[in-house]
Amino acid sequence: MSYTRRREALRVQLRQSELDALLVTDSLNVRYLTGFTGSNSALLVHAEGDECSVFATDGRYDTQSQRQVPDLRRVIDRSVRSRLVKDATENRIGRLGFESHVVTVDGHAALAKVTAAVQLVATSRPVEALRLIKDDAEVAVLRAACAAADTALAGLLAEGGLRPGRTEREVGRDLEARMVAAGAAGRSFETIVATGANSAVPHHRPTDAVLCRGDLLKMDFGALVDGYHSDMTRTVVLGQPAQWQREIYELVAAAQAAGRAALRAGAQVRDVDAAARDIIAQAGHGGDFVHGLGHGVGLQIHEAPALSQCGVGTLAAGMAVTVEPGVYLAGRGGVRIEDTLVVSGGEPELLTLTTKDLVVVPC
Amino acid sequence: MSYTRRREALRVQLRQSELDALLVTDSLNVRYLTGFTGSNSALLVHAEGDECSVFATDGRYDTQSQRQVPDLRRVIDRSVRSRLVKDATENRIGRLGFESHVVTVDGHAALAKVTAAVQLVATSRPVEALRLIKDDAEVAVLRAACAAADTALAGLLAEGGLRPGRTEREVGRDLEARMVAAGAAGRSFETIVATGANSAVPHHRPTDAVLCRGDLLKMDFGALVDGYHSDMTRTVVLGQPAQWQREIYELVAAAQAAGRAALRAGAQVRDVDAAARDIIAQAGHGGDFVHGLGHGVGLQIHEAPALSQCGVGTLAAGMAVTVEPGVYLAGRGGVRIEDTLVVSGGEPELLTLTTKDLVVVPC
Q1: B208–chain A Cβ distance below 8 A for any pair
Q2: Which of B55, B210, B323, B327 has a CB 3.0–4.6 Å from the CB of B72, allowing a cystine?
Q3: Is the dihedral of CA A59, A65, A66, A70 positive or negative?
Q4: B355: which residues sit within 8 A by CB, 6+ positions away?
Q5: CB distance from B158 to chain A under 8 Å?
Q6: What value of ipTM does the predicted structure carry?
Q7: Which residue of A has its CA nearest to B290?
Q8: Tally of domains in chain A
């Protein structure tokens, strides 16, 4: 079972850091390590094994946690963290790691007050280090989330959902409803629908602006499936494209293809960014590509690694990332093309399958 | 303007705590104090006045922050917090408060590394203390959010949306779509629709369970308007109610009325809980009311004050809270009735206006 394997992988790190146990308090990290989806939980992963590990939640989640976490000792207590630190004291844990990027200054003071017998040791995102590499179960869910977004956009296009006269907001809601109909629990982030000059704003929120013939229409959206986030951007043109629209579309498409081609285990993240960015810069639009090339996706819509000019690190097989260059011409319009992919030793697996050829919406 | 007034109110607290300034890093608190709605921001509120205060965000939000925060000095920097601490150093700030319930242990270490010249002082939720009392602008938005939920439920009932054969999930999506059509930006939390025996689960997630004649149907939902959350629960019966259904409905309705009657500036929060709880306990159902009576609502769906048996504190005019007793009979069904209200010196203002008489859905 994957949760058992993930906890076992975490133990390797604990032993390397000479920790007796780790107190996991980030709810996504608890979910990753146990499958529990409730809103109040903590987990003590013991270096020696699952038989010494403990899961805590409150009374509202007694039944749910029994079902979702059948393989660990469970305690029911409103103060999940303090309870596990007490438990650690009773079980003579000496060095207890805690997630210092999650626990607040007040939270740390409260834990330190529970006991003087346990030494609280700051750790550097040990669970996130595991989450960087998606296992088969995770890739399968990401594939399903990306498929829901593909299905939604295909339906929207096929059924004339992008006609002049509709508003950005209407298109956004339509996409979201279609993702839910395609099996998503909901959207994975606030849908971006930006038409005409609005498409030049990288993170435009949908307004009552009306789609018009001749507009570039940028849609950045994703589906949430079993807690995992898909992320895709497509830019289409309503009616026959003008020359400048076609030019920046082809430029961004070429940059995106170069980014995907550079996406490979062993590559430096900044080199992947550069592969796409150089093409845009050489065309004289370097200043119009105002953000990083991409980011990791998984239980969060934005997670490590960051593919950017100042990013540090190396890609590894199993990382799920976006590749999303853009060129934005203020007052005129912009193009972004974004896929979600899984890194491998060879060509990455493309999860968002909608075409990247310029779609001309007849109108 | 209300943001200016809120910052001025915060200054009173800063002076009492002998702080030269407060570094606000919670994004809802920044929004409360400035109106900024982006995802990366920090605010330094100087004790001397707005002319010494500074707002920080990153390049993505340059245009947006110019519009939303026209009245403060703005700096654009990706590292919003460090930048403001540097700024504080240059401006010879001695004692700088920080939100110790928000800043993580790692975050604090990073800020301390920026400078030794500034003393970082933990504070006890000073902005949340202000947010407890809603001003007129906030009450107006909460009223609109509650109205969107009322409109959604009225439409659902009027148009036969609660017919046997539909699933919980369908009803949930229908309610959510209707709230959006009524002007909401979205739902304010995951909608609860629980039919038949599922209604006995306090926080049931909608499933494909089908509505049946004779079911108690519990709907707990809310609308999001301008960042503010409404919260309402209504329980209806599909077809003629059985005697036990009518009895627990009337019991919960009486308890809810008693809770509302006790809701008044100056009341202890635990006394308000007790006013409702005693009625349920006297009827022999004390053990079936397994949660607190209510909670504050505002920029968060759950915020202070908590109306519960172990709650501490006194109500004040302008607090927006829910009153939501419930009786849950495992395996049979449950009833919860919940309103959002604003506390005053006299009778509270009721924001959720849907009837609390038992609605019998003809079928």
Answers
A1: no
A2: B55
A3: negative
A4: none
A5: no
A6: 0.83
A7: A60
A8: 2
